[in-house]
């Protein structure tokens, strides 16, 4: 899809985007409509013809919800694909601000995304569609460019989650990261299993030892010369999770999505580098497959970790926290960022608490919690806090090791998992954990089955932009 800033005239298909309050401001360039035909409320669409060309009106309601605007425009392209051919134009009527136009263009571009990678007859992805945009903005070209970078990163995150595990292996994630090397001020390291062993990443290696697909420990460092802050990201990268020898008994076909945290931080890193934002961003993705074989790690094993803490393995299906433990410890010791955020599809318990409406947020830093909550509200990648009280940490005490990876009880699963992770942060003063098991992969209006959501990508953008604005 090629989007340009131009007077939106002469195109085969012309779209008029209208806020509800601006409905009466339709200029003489466009046919006036009865409120009975088109009321400009959210998701309202009306198609007509003018001079032999298609003319579509799309209502944005009050325009206050970013996700609402995105979804309206995504539906426009995805559900009305037959109305678009080689070129189209979009006119934003009235006083839409930059954020509203960006979200509309993000949604329109997402409308060309489909998870039908292996179907013989694929849906149209509109890669050759020319889109002319007309909006009353001073910096329209930069607005368009930003929308392209954000939507492209979101589609990368969605694709990473949606690809089958036969393709999306730990090596695939490593190769994806290595392709970022061409970006300015960005370096990539990938540890193979031999190097990871030399580094002492034993908890990480234990999880993947039952798989024939080698584990990869991925480190990306975006370090612009004008960096105003340093943020560390860690993403859970379990490319498929059988549960190991504590094997899952249901829903295993969805476990290709168990790297939704990795998808979020990888795509966000690419986005931040493409936007050339002045922040140092260090991203670690421990990438493994948790499989069943004669070499798989065993319940009751005691394993070591990068931090030096020994871990009693109660349940091999509590594997994500093991690789995150080494990722967090390695980040803290070797890079010492001012803030560390980890994203992980970690527990069914978080889904039991919040359903599919939001992710669980854990941090002891009140200021960091406020900033993440604000970014959550701005992006509508919703988070809600749960406690990290010390009482829950006692549940992870082990008789034989320094800590156990699972308390074995049907209560407080998300919280005790977060307390386990906390033990590997070396009491970092500004660390937060996001359990996104219910929101990284789910049902939508755009597919018949569950697909990736790109949850976390826009949240991270808002968080980082807010941090940079605060630094100015």
From TrEMBL:
InterPro entries xrefs: Leucine_aapep/pepB (IPR011356), Macro_dom-like (IPR043472), Peptidase_M17_C (IPR000819)
Pfam families: Peptidase_M17
GO molecular function: aminopeptidase activity
UniProt KW keywords: Aminopeptidase, Hydrolase, Manganese, Protease
Keyword Manganese applies: yes
Residues annotated as domain Cytosol aminopeptidase: 157-460
Similarity comment: Belongs to the peptidase M17 family.
Protein's name according to its UniProt entry: Leucyl aminopeptidase family protein
Organism, scientific name: Algoriphagus sediminis
């Amino acid at each position: 899809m090629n989007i340009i800033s131009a007077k939106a005239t002469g195109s085969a298909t012309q779209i008029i985007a209208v806020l509800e309050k601006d409905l009466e401001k339709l200029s003489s360039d466009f046919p006036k409509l009865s409120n009975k035909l088109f009321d400009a409320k959210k998701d309202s669409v009306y198609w007509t013809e003018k001079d032999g060309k298609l003319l579509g009106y799309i209502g944005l309601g009050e325009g206050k919800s970013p996700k609402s605007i995105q979804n309206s425009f995504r539906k426009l392209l995805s559900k009305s694909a037959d109305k678009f051919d080689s070129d189209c134009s979009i006119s934003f009527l009235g006083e839409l601000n930059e954020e509203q136009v960006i979200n509309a263009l993000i949604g329109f571009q997402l409308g060309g995304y489909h998870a039908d990678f292996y179907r013989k007859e694929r849906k149209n992805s509109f890669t050759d569609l020319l889109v002319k945009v007309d909006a009353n903005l001073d910096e329209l070209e930069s607005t368009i460019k930003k929308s392209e970078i954000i939507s492209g990163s979101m589609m990368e995150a969605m694709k990473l989650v949606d690809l089958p595990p036969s393709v999306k292996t730990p090596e695939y994630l490593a190769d994806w990261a290595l392709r970022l090397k061409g970006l300015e001020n960005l370096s990539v390291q990938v540890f193979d299993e031999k190097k990871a062993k030399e580094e002492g990443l034993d908890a990480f290696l234990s999880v993947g030892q039952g798989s024939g697909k080698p584990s990869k420990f991925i480190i990306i460092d975006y370090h612009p010369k004008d960096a105003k802050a340093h943020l560390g990201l860690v993403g859970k990268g379990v490319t498929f999770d059988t549960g190991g020898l504590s094997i899952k008994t249901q829903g295993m076909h969805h476990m290709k999505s168990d790297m939704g945290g990795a998808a979020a931080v990888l795509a966000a890193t690419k986005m931040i580098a493409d936007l050339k934002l002045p922040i140092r961003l260090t991203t670690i993705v421990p990438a493994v497959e948790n499989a069943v074989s004669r070499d798989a790690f065993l319940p009751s094993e005691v394993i070591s970790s990068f931090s030096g803490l020994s871990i009693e393995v109660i349940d091999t299906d509590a594997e994500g926290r093991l690789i995150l433990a080494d990722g967090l410890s390695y980040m803290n010791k070797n890079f010492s960022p001012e803030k560390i955020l980890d994203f992980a599809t970690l527990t069914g318990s978080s889904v039991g608490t919040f359903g599919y409406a939001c992710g669980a947020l854990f941090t002891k830093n009140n200021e960091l919690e406020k900033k993440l909550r604000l970014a959550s509200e701005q992006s509508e990648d919703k988070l809600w806090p749960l406690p990290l009280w010390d009482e829950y940490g006692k549940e992870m005490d082990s008789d034989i090791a320094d800590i156990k990876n699972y308390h074995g009880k049907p209560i407080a699963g998300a919280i005790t998992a977060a307390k386990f992770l906390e033990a590997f942060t070396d009491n970092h003063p500004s660390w937060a954990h996001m359990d996104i098991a219910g929101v990284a992969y789910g049902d939508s209006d755009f597919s018949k089955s569950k697909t990736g959501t790109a949850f976390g990508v826009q949240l991270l953008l808002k968080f980082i932009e807010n941090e940079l604005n605060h630094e100015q």
